[in-house]
Amino acid sequence: MRSTTMFFFMLLACVFDQAQIAPAPHRRVVTISGANKHGSEPSIALNPNNPDQVVAVFQPATVAYSTDAGQTFLTADLPPIEGWRAGGDVSLAFDNKGNAYLSTLHFDKLGSTSYWAHAAGKNGIFVRRSPDGGKTWEKDAVAVKTYNGGEADSHMEDMPRIFADSQPHSPHAGSVYVGWIEWQLDKSIMLFARSTDGAKTFSPPIRISTHAGLPRDDNGGLVGFVGVIGADGTIYAIWNDGTTITFTQSHDGGKTFTPSRAAVDVAAPYFGGAGGIPGVSRVMGFPQIGVDSRPGKQGGTLYVSWSDFRNGDVDVFCAFSKDHGRTWSKPIRVNSDPIHDGLDQFFQWMTVDPATGDVYVQFYDRRDDPENRRTGFTLARSTDGGNTFVNYAWEETPFESQQPAFLGDYTWLTVLNGKAYGAWTEPTSKETAPEAGRSPRQETVIKVGFADFSGEK
After folding, report:
1. DSSP characters for 386-432?
2. Do 211 and 289 belong together in one domain?
3. Closest Cα to residue 147, out of 116, 190, 177?
4. pLDDT at 441
């Protein structure tokens, strides 16, 4: 009996040791949302011309900027857009001249539950520019696409993502791009618009999704546009379509795109209902795309990352393509805890360091809690082209959701020269005030993490 008991405890110790991961090198985590300011769905970007300038944004549209490489943040004065409510679905990008751009979604009301185009109200996508690293923003916002809500063909725009061409050898350097979902009564499609004048004007939107999705914001709809730019200015874009990651590209600065096609098979991108994650109101595993943008033979590899439950619990995955998206590797599991352990990793975000080509993925992580409730935040890094990943603990203290917490639909990550900046949402111990027809939720704050791998091999 004694030897059996000793064996049991040795086995537990072995499993516990497997779960432990080293802290991210030189890690630092700060809270950027104010004491009376809740938030979710952050984005973060840094100025490639001045890496000390780091800008983060979260919804409702609030900008925090840093001039000391993320050690401290101040809240910017973001002028409201006259006639529109505060914006959400925020994202950021810097161009080749060091200008920052902010994309926001604004609406008065949604349509029917999850059927956003049905009786949708006034809605639109806007872009604003900052010439000084996010400290000040131009008052006049540029409309990418809007509806007043009374049009016969009124639709609902959703989840815009902005990105800019900062590649030094690109013929389209300085161009600013936005891609997003449009919910129509009978389908969902992906739209795209471009600006060649510093976001003063945008082209009429074009449809880039060959196959339309279902019209509900649920499994089966198109969701999660993300775009990146290669060294030669090629635009690569992806989104979820059912149980596939769909891929397209443009070689003329976004004027035209190749027919979109399924590239990687995945599980459904929404984790809700009986298959949900305890303590979180909704989780999506939609993908990101990254590219090794170093010129010449050393660069060019494409990467996609996503999360799904093919292993029972939710895991994070990555695949790569060395032939510009024609073929993709088998999925590679990013999180390093034992497979089928029943513990979830979710809400990943991926990026590729443009200076080194290393791949970084961040995600919420429950590997240290057998009850699958306490949640840490992990940063993974690959230095061998996405074949293997080393996991690092980014957040020192895990959080636990007592009530269903709304963490948003995404986190965000940016890296340059081995210095990583991640933004994510965490619940606090406080609950939101009760609202008619809605259960209380835990209030949330926005965290920004820093890690420095510049001295690591």
Report:
1. TS--EEEE--SS-B--SS-B---S--EEEEETTEEEEEEEEEEEEEP
2. no
3. 116
4. 65
pLDDT of residue 28: 97
And the tokens for 408?
């948003």
Query: What's the CATH code of the domain at 172?
Result: 2.120.10.10
In DSSP terms, 44 is beta-bridged to 56
Tokens of 140: 């006049």
- Write out the DSSP string of 280-302: BS-EE---EEEE---SSTT---E
Task: Please check whether residues 315 and 257 belong to one and the same domain.
Answer: no
Structural domains in the chain (count): 2
Residue range of the domain that includes 391: 29-38+280-433+440-457
| 8 Å CB contact between 245 and 263 | yes
Tell me the two tokens of residue 323.
């032939």
- Please indicate, yes or no, whether residues 152 and 296 belong to a single structural domain of this protein: no
Same domain membership, residue 291 and residue 197 = no
pLDDT confidence of residue 310: 94
Cβ atoms of 349 and 361 closer than 8 Å: yes
Give the β-pairing of 123-130 and 302-311: unpaired
How open is the CA angle 301-304-310, to the nearest 5 degrees?
140
Helix/strand/coil (H, E, C) string of 20-79?
CCCECCCCEEEECCCCCCCCEEEEEEEECCEEEEEEEEEECCEEEEECCCCCCCEECECC
| Regions of the chain with pLDDT less than 50 | 1-18
pLDDT score, position 2: 41
CB–CB of 48/35 below 8 Å?
no
Return the amino acid letter for 295. Answer: P
Say how many Å lie between the first and final Cα of the chain, rounded. 47
**How far, in Å, CA of 449 to CA of 445, rounded?**
13
User: What is the per-residue pLDDT across 389-399, written as a single tens digit (0 to 9) for each?
Assistant: 999 999 999 99
* Residue 188 neighbours by CB under 8 Å, 6+ apart: 181, 182, 212, 213, 214, 215, 221, 222, 223
Tell me the C-alpha distance between 190 and 188, whole Å.
Answer: 7
DSSP 433: P
Helix (H, G, I), strand (E, B) or coil at 363: strand
Tokens of 148: 């007043």
pTM of the complete model: 0.93
Residues 6 or more apart whose Cβ sits within 8 Å of residue 359: 290, 303, 318, 350, 351, 352, 353, 381, 382, 385, 386, 389
Query: 294 and 346 share a domain?
Result: yes
pLDDT at position 435: 61
Q: How many Cα atoms sit within 13 Å of 126 on the Cβ side?
A: 26
pLDDT tens digit sequence for 230-270: 999 999 999 999 999 999 999 999 999 999 999 999 998 98
